[in-house]
Amino acid sequence: MDRASACGAEGCAFESRRGRNILKPRRLSIPSFKWYEIYAMISLATPIQELKNVGPRNISKLKKLGIQTVRELLWHFPARYEDYRDISTIDSVEPGQKVNIVGNIIKMAIRQIFPRRMIIVSAIVEDDTGRITAVWFNQPYIANTLKEGVRVSLAGKVTLTKKGLQLSSPTYEKINTQYFEPQLKHTGGLIPVYPETEGITSKYLRFLIKPIIDKINIPDMLPGTVSDKLGFPDVSWAIKNIHYPSTLSDAEKARERLAFDDLLLFQFKALLERRKINQYKSIPVPLEAELIKEYISKLPFELTGDQKIAIYEILKDLEKSYPMNRLLEGDVGSGKTVVAAICALETVHRGYQAVFMAPTEVLANQHFRTIRNLTYPFGTSVALLTSNSSRINDDIYKKPALKKLISEGKADIVIGTHAVIQKDVKFNKLALVIIDEQHRFGINQRKALVRRTESVPHLLSMTATPIPRSLALTIYGDLDISIIKEKPKNRRKIITRIISPEEREEAYNFISSQVKNGRQVFVVCPRIELAKKEEGGEPKKQTKMDSIWAEVKAVQEEHKKLSGEIFPGLRVAMLHGKLKPKEKQEIMADFKNEKIDILVATSVIEVGVDIPNASIMMIESAERFGLAQLHQFRGRVGRAEHQSYCLLFTSSGMSNTRLKALIKHDDGFRLAEQDMATRGPGEFFGIKQSGMADLAMASLANVELIKKARATARALLKDDPSIKKLPLLKERLDQIQKLVHFE
Ligand code: ADP
Ligand code: MG
């Protein structure tokens, strides 16, 4: 196909909506060099504005899709394919079918229907077996392109009308008979359908991409020996075949190779990060088995096997003279705190300091109490430093005084919110940093802590997000992982039920009876939906304050209802983001001391809160929460031997797939798998921001591919530690690094 006809067919289709006289053919500027010369000059780095047919308006639209260079254009992969592989003969088509036909135009007509001002272009197309009419609505420019005598390929759906069979608004493409084999980009074979945005259609993307991939030379970042060994095609083949495969299995092969590239880069990044960490010095904390046994024997319960293994793994890391970088993963209520506490005790015993960082004030306070109780027999000094409290053991200090004591090493374990990583907090001999619920902290915060001191402290992060190990290796490839799967022995399965509006009464009675038996209750409600639009005006922008207010309001209303109408005889309190930190602390302390029966709260109680006597988690409008969050809420109960219940109040009584999954599985790891399958791992783990490409993200379930990528990265790095022999790969790595930095 030559340039002029390509533009005639396509260019006009995009330019003509601008309200010019659309019936008049657009004048084409004929470039001074031939099309093949232009495409030969294009490289991956070419900015898209240098491409023909990318006008200023499209540049910004393409940018929205993340496309600014030819590379990004070619790496914008189809979401699926339309299958037009078989060319049908006209006599064989039937209504309802999607078909691809090839024939000659024997008659064109254009007419206007007045009442509706609709313009209809119709073409009668003939092949050896028959004729069919194709019609297009309000696209008069088509008549400029498709003329009588032109050979054309049409793809679309067949409909039956009064006048017989028709193809309505088919995709069309002129076939230049000068070529023996038509190279079709919109109508023949498997046609790519791209993720689109407003104003950028798949057709337009095909129009941009196809001529480039036919001509461009794509340098391969993966050495040929490696792809051969792994049975992967080279990158040029992969790019061609992900856009225009001959078969779906070729498309799959291409996709796998390209996903591999992304996973490989991720593994490289992780290994390099790890190598960097291993070069730092940190304080070795020698393990003293007898002492650990003593700590464990003083606990009020017996540790699970997994807890013991985790403690051992962490203590073994602490012995090393380079920093630990370990993730402790365990479902809600699996007992991570005690594991961390024992490791902190060992650190203190050797004369060093440990920091324990929690994501919220409420949690920092709770950890302070827990750790204080646990370490009391050993004379450990435990400090609490949040925006609102500063104390060591039972002594309250002014903040500057406390910070001074910390810097002099007078506090052994320092517990706090992000206040503890502020620059003005100095330590005397910090050896261990523990970060609870690490997914709540940004990577940068983690780094801030690491950069603080001369010797880099050992780092233990803890999370209740149950990330399958293979996935964790990819996302957090620079971490070692300990997993607690086993629940403490005293636990019973939490009974989870959906409560329909008719069952409310009964459920409230049940709650009363539980309270009469001495148990306590959490109530969580979603924020009240704010009006999305102001009267007749622009959509209202929601600020963070707005959403806090929306939560507070919901809690206040629920509190009023429960304390006034439903449980007038019970002690009902509320906890929300508008309370002062001190008020929050008092309420949590009262709840812990059983002075409150029912606590109505916002999602602040989502993480970490530990009230073993609470046996009911009641969730209002449960259908409005995500699965991971619901599972976290449920984890607030069932933390001791009492039979516990999670009551999912719904407004319709209907259950959705999430609620059904929640009832079926009480194991967070199983739920994670389920949720990942429906929402994709990126959404579930909130790692959209990790700089990982969509394709790699989609391949996270492909454990084999991840393993291959890991092994390959290892081998390549071992052979070539400074990545001198792989300049293209190095370049890609640097690009990713930049991306991650700007988040
Ligand atoms: P999470 O892993 O969610 O942070 P916590 O550390 O808060 O869980 O522990 C939940 C509760 O289980 C706490 O009350 C803790 O004292 C208790 N616990 C921890 N380990 C055990 C165990 N092995 N046996 C019984 N109870 C335990
Ligand atoms: Mg916890």
UniProtKB/TrEMBL annotation:
Task: Please give the SUPFAM superfamilies that the UniProt record associates with this protein.
Answer: Nucleic acid-binding proteins, P-loop containing nucleoside triphosphate hydrolases
One BP annotation, GO: DNA repair
All copies of domain Helicase C-terminal, residue ranges: 503-677
Per the record, the domain of life is Bacteria
SMART domains referenced in this protein's UniProt entry, alphabetically:
DEXDc, HELICc
Instruction: Give the Gene Ontology MF terms in alphabetical order.
Output: 3'-5' DNA helicase activity; ATP binding; ATP hydrolysis activity; DNA binding
- Pinpoint the Helicase ATP-binding domain residues: 317-484
Q: Which UniProt key words apply to this protein? A: ATP-binding, DNA damage, DNA recombination, DNA repair, DNA-binding, Helicase, Hydrolase, Isomerase, Nucleotide-binding
What catalytic reaction does the record list? Couples ATP hydrolysis with the unwinding of duplex DNA by translocating in the 3'-5' direction; ATP + H2O = ADP + phosphate + H(+)
EC number(s) in its UniProt entry?
5.6.2.4
What is the role of this chain?
Plays a critical role in recombination and DNA repair. Helps process Holliday junction intermediates to mature products by catalyzing branch migration. Has replication fork regression activity, unwinds stalled or blocked replication forks to make a HJ that can be resolved. Has a DNA unwinding activity characteristic of a DNA helicase with 3'-5' polarity.
- Family to which this protein belongs: Belongs to the helicase family. RecG subfamily.
The protein here is known as ATP-dependent DNA helicase RecG
Tell me what organism the protein belongs to. Answer: Candidatus Yanofskybacteria bacterium GW2011_GWB1_45_11
